[in-house]
């Protein structure tokens, strides 16, 4: 009996030693988890109002660096209603942080329609996104209030109608961004300042003073414009307001936790991949009051192209 | 008179009198405290006598804990005695009046004998400085049960400086860091970085004390070394858990290092050099017999030697400077002043420019006093400890942090018959600053101060062969945390009355007001920012429970096994993020650890052998806001990056005359790490739509789950051979050896972002020379 017990202990020790020995000899190291779930990372939006559609398509890669070599992907945009499809052109972009491939097409898009964006590698790995475009909406109305003899802007109300899902609203300043006069763009988001005031109706309050303060903080030099002037035609910054309406299924991102947005499957419409592709209609209007001729009534300003 | 006093005390403590009012109660409590502090109860109430004193080494004045004191009354057969405790203090009370024969012995020292005449109510102080006996030392061949690596006692291990040499170290002498890493339950992430994880605890949860003053980061960047080389250390009490009430403010372990005093009779010195480090130590009397000094300077040399040794520069540098002055006064007073500075700087990944550096400055004083006519030992220490950390580019670090701590600790020891009382008060002040500019975020700067004060009491009760030490520590934190009461209990029992067999156990509650936050970008990140608990208004908390058995199998051959369990709360852990950044966003976790250490040690004659196996399972549980979306559950269990499950250590040494050979093999199972699925750039739609022509996006790691991978297991063989040459006034030691003898490519860490693997040191042969001047 004792012998059996000893044998049992001895056997256990032998097993443990064997396990440790095998463990010590095992030199297989797999730094990456096998990935047959996410093939491509796809970001951007399709804009009915834009002449050219740009989307970012990148392979989900095995390290953080990106080599500027040709991408192994064919990206197509298919109009689901007609079945028409177009192969998008690739273009390698260089950024201070690395390289990126953007794909583009000048195919005209139709509002209220559905498109499928597909990326396929030579091995057949496929990721795709279904994108629904919204209905068109009325040109938003901008109303700036001024006070005093110097006509200092105090409050801007932007009235939007016919938008079920507001994807973007921002003020854009395009002009000298450095002392040497280099021209560039900066923008200030007001999506978080928006309030839904009824079915398809939004009201956005913008404080011009806060925008101006942001501009003066952002610029590395004293801007060559005063608060009282920066929204007027003499302003070198050509202020504009950009509004985008998104199609069905679009999420209102400001209400979603950042950590959830960062999850691969947190907010994504890319199947077998990661990312998000929105379908939008955008409108860009000058940041000014447009008055109906002969009256004091405010009316929608004529549309302008966005500065990108 | 004493009876009258007791009667007064009784009246004062009668419940009815206590009820009279709050002020009366406070006055009575104070009166009782004064009564307790100033008087041995037995001496106050009866006509007996007591003998007390401190036993020290005559040359260095170092206390000899464990020295045997035996009293025999003339004409009596019965012996009374005890072993000297901490600080070499002993006290035998309740002695009938009469003549006694006193004998004090300690292995390696000549016995001391004296005849005493004890009068009524007398407390006689007999402090003895024992003379080393070279002949005894020469025949000292068998380890004493309860000492050595297998001499565990409820998580506690006494590590003598001489033990450091057991572990082959690529220098001329041993080091506490190398020794500790050879013990089961102690995990180092690699051979660089200086971080030790003990029984599932993190480095910031370890308390390292140098002569009673805390040192924040004493382990050097080159993992073999610490601020504690064998020549300047007397011993270290290493508590892997279950430590008593005297220690407060940490939740994992205590390494209480007692530094050696300088020789108070002779001036001596030592110098050594190896490809890894060079060291000079000198010591001697200031006033012969009354005061001494000891100083050491140590500096790494691997930066200079590595191009030849490894064919590439290893940019790792450390320095340590140390000075201790000791005064041996009259009436058994010993006071010392100490200052220590360390500096570490290096690149853990030799191929990138990021540098990590830290430095400690510690200064403090300690006095051990046994005042004439009193019956208690005062151990008072006060000090200041400063640490600064920085990482990033050498000239403009991205992350900086510093912490300063002032301490005043007053510890008292006294006996009542066989019951020992340890109690004391403390005041600790922390000043903490950190500045962490996130790689992808804004600066985060914080400055805070933390004041704590408190008291502890510990009683060691003996009943036959059962010894129990209940205790508790009370701490008050100004404006930070609620008051804290931490009960603790330690016990040991020799069921058959034999010293060779002992069961020991400990259980206790531990709290920690400071959290040390580490970088989490990779396993090799060692930057530490100290702050008050960042995830809760409660302190870090742990409950330890452990049970162990020690058995002597034959003379010099002992075995011990100890199982342990820890429950932890309020642990700060990084929020699981997909972004590529050093994040200070923290979440709260709870956790538990369980495991067992098995040690087998043979120490007899010329041969020494040790085999240790450690099993540890560490599991954390954290709840974070996005887990429900991610995993479909609110909380997640995982094994943190220091969860080394299996650990084996084998050591052997052979002492043949002037030759000493040592060998050590260690094996550790792989540490957890996070295996990404891939990488991309995230575009958020939170503020505005991404314009992909103009925006690159934010680098993202696509992760399915955290810490689901394991790095490769680790094993290494180190060997050394030493030859001593004796001369009349000096000794020369030559050592040759090699670390990683079979050149195993042990992974230090793997950068999953760039797929670069960083390995630990390859095969490294070395030779060292040590020259000792024995003095005059």
Large-scale geometry of chain B? globular
- Within CATH, the superfamily of the domain at 256-671 and 711-773 in chain B carries the name TonB-dependent receptor, beta-barrel domain
Low-confidence stretches of chain B: 1-32, 38-43, 138-142, 439-443
Largest sheet of chain A: 8 strands, mixed
Average pLDDT over all residues of chain A: 88
Secondary-structure class of chain B: mainly beta
H/E element order of chain A: HEEEEEEEEEEEEEEHEHEEEE
- The radius of gyration over CA of chain B amounts to 28 Å
Distance between the termini of chain A: 87 Å
Percentage of residues in strands of chain B: over 45%
Structure explained in plain terms:
- The complex is a heterodimer of chains A (308) and B (776).
- With 308 residues, chain A is mainly beta.
- Chain A has two domains: 40-132, Immunoglobulin-like (Sandwich), CATH 2.60.40.10; 141-254 and 270-299.
- Chain A is built from three helices and 19 strands.
- In chain A, the strands form four sheets. In chain A, strands 5-6-2-1-17-15-11-12 form an eight-stranded mixed sheet, covered by helices on one side. In chain A, strands 4-3-7-8-16 form a five-stranded antiparallel sheet, with no helix packed on it. A four-stranded antiparallel sheet of chain A has the order 9-10-14-13.
- In chain A, a hairpin with a 6-residue loop joins strand 18 and strand 19 (298-299).
- Chain A starts with a helix and ends in a 9-residue tail after the last strand.
- Residues 1-6 of chain A have low confidence and may be disordered.
- With 776 residues, chain B is mostly beta strands.
- Among the domains of chain B are: 1-38, no CATH class; 256-671 and 711-773, Maltoporin, Chain A.
- Chain B is built from eight helices and 46 strands.
- Chain B has a 22-stranded antiparallel beta barrel. A five-stranded mixed sheet of chain B has the order 9-14-15-12-13, with no helix packed on it. In chain B, strands 1, 4, 7 and 8 form a four-stranded mixed sheet that branches.
- In chain B, a hairpin with a 6-residue loop joins strand 26 (466-477) and strand 27.
- Chain B is globular.
- Chains A and B meet through helix 1, strand 1, strand 2, strand 6 and strand 11 of A and strand 39 and strand 40 of B.
């Amino acid at each position: 009996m004792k012998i059996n017990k000893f044998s049992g202990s001895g056997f256990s020790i032998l097993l443990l030693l064997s396990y440790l020995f095998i463990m010590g000899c095992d030199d297989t190291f797999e730094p990456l988890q096998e990935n047959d779930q996410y093939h491509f990372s796809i970001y951007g939006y399709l804009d009915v109002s834009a002449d050219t559609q740009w989307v970012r398509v990148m392979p989900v890669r095995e390290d953080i660096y990106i080599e500027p070599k040709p991408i192994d992907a064919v990206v197509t945009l298919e109009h689901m209603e007609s079945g028409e499809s177009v192969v998008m052109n690739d273009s390698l972009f260089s950024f201070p942080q690395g390289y990126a491939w953007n794909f583009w097409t000048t195919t005209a898009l139709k509002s209220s329609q559905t498109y499928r964006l597909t990326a396929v590698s030579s091995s057949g790995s496929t990721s795709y996104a279904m994108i629904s475009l919204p209905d068109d909406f009325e040109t938003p109305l901008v109303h700036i209030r001024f006070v005093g003899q110097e006509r200092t802007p105090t409050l801007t109300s932007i009235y939007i109608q016919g938008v079920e899902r507001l994807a973007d609203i921002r003020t854009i300043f395009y002009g000298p961004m450095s002392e040497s006069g280099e021209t560039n763009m900066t923008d200030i988001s007001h999506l978080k300042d928006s309030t839904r005031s009824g079915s398809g109706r939004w009201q956005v309050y913008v404080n011009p003073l806060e925008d101006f303060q942001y501009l003066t903080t952002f610029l590395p030099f004293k801007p060559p414009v005063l608060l009282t002037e920066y929204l007027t035609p003499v302003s070198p910054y050509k202020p504009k307001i950009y509004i985008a309406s998104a199609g069905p299924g679009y999420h209102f991102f400001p209400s979603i936790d950042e950590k959830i947005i960062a999850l691969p499957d947190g907010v994504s419409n890319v199947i077998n991949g990661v990312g998000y592709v929105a379908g939008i209609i955008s409108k860009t209007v000058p940041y000014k009051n447009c008055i109906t001729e002969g009256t004091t009534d405010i009316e929608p300003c004529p549309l302008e192209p966005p500065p990108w | 008179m004493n009876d009258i006093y007791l009667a007064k005390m009784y009246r004062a403590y009668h419940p009815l009198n206590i009820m009279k009012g709050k002020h009366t109660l406070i006055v009575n409590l104070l009166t009782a405290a004064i009564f307790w502090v100033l008087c041995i109860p037995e001496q106050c109430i009866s006509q007996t006598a007591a003998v007390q004193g401190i036993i020290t080494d005559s040359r260095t004045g170092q206390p000899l804990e464990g020295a045997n004191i035996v009293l025999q009354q003339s004409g009596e057969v019965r012996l009374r005695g005890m072993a000297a405790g901490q600080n070499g203090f002993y006290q035998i009370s309740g002695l009938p009046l009469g003549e006694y024969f006193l004998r004090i012995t300690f292995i390696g020292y000549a016995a001391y004998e004296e005849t005493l005449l004890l009068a009524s109510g007398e407390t006689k102080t007999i402090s003895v400085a024992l003379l080393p006996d070279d002949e005894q030392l020469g025949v000292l061949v068998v380890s004493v049960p309860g000492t050595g690596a297998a001499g565990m006692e409820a998580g506690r291990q006494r590590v003598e400086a001489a033990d450091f040499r057991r572990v082959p170290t690529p220098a001329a002498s041993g080091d506490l860091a190398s020794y500790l890493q050879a013990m089961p339950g102690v995990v180092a992430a690699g051979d660089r970085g200086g971080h030790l994880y003990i029984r599932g605890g993190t480095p910031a949860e370890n308390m390292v004390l140098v002569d009673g003053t805390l040192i924040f980061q004493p382990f050097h960047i080159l993992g073999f070394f610490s601020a504690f080389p064998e020549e300047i250390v007397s011993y270290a009490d290493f508590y892997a858990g279950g430590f008593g009430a005297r220690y407060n403010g940490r939740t994992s372990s205590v390494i209480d290092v007692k530094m050696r005093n300088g020789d108070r009779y002779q001036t001596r010195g030592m110098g050594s050099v190896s490809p890894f480090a060079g060291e000079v130590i000198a010591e001697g009397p200031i006033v012969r017999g009354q005061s001494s000094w000891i100083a050491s300077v140590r500096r790494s040399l691997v930066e200079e030697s590595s191009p030849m040794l490894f064919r590439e520069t290893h940019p790792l540098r450390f320095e340590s400077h140390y000075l201790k002055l000791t005064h041996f006064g009259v009436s058994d007073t010993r006071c010392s002043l100490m200052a220590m500075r360390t500096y570490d700087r290096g690149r853990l990944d030799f191929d990138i420019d990021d540098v990590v550096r830290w430095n400690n400055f510690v200064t403090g004083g300690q006095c051990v006093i046994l005042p004439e006519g009193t019956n208690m030992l005062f151990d008072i220490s006060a000090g200041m400890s400063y640490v600064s950390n920085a990482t990033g580019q050498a000239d403009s670090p991205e992350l900086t942090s510093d912490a300063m701590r002032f301490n005043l600790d007053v510890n008292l020891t006294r006996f009542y018959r066989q019951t020992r009382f340890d109690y004391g008060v403390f005041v600790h002040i922390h000043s903490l600053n950190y500045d962490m500019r996130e790689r992808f975020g804004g600066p985060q700067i914080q400055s805070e101060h933390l004041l704590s004060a408190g008291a502890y009491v510990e009683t060691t009760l003996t009943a036959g062969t059962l010894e129990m030490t209940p205790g508790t520590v009370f701490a008050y934190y100004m404006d930070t945390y609620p008051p804290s009461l931490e009960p603790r209990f330690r016990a040991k029992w020799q069921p058959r009355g034999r010293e060779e067999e002992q069961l020991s156990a400990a259980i206790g509650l531990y709290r920690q007001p400071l959290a040390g936050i580490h970088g989490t970008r990779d396993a090799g990140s060692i930057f530490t920012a100290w702050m008050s608990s960042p995830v809760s208004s409660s302190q870090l908390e742990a409950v330890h429970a452990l049970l162990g058995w020690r058995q002597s199998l034959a003379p010099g051959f002992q075995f011990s096994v100890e199982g342990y369990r820890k429950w932890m709360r309020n642990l700060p852990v990084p929020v699981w993020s997909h972004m590529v950044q050093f994040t200070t966003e923290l979440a709260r976790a709870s956790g538990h650890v369980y495991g067992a250490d098995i040690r087998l040690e043979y120490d007899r004659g010329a041969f020494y052998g040790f085999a240790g196996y450690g099993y540890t399972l560490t599991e954390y549980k954290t709840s974070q806001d996005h887990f429900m979306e991610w995993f479909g559950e609110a909380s997640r269990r995982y094994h943190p990056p220091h969860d080394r499950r299996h650990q084996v250590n084998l050591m052997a040494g052979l002492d043949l005359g002037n030759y000493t050979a040592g060998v050590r093999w260690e094996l550790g199972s792989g540490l957890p790490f996070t295996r990404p699925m891939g990488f991309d750039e995230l575009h958020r739609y939170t503020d505005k739509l991404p314009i992909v022509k103009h925006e690159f996006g934010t680098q993202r790691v696509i992760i399915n789950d955290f810490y689901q991978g394991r790095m490769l297991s680790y094993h290494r063989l180190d060997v050394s051979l030493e030859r001593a040459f004796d001369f009349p006034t000096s000794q020369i030691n030559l050592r040759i050896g090699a670390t990683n003898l079979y050149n195993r490519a042990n992974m230090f860490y793997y950068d999953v972002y760039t797929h670069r693997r960083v390995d630990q040191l390859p095969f490294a042969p070395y030779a060292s020379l040590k020259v000792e001047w024995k003095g005059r």
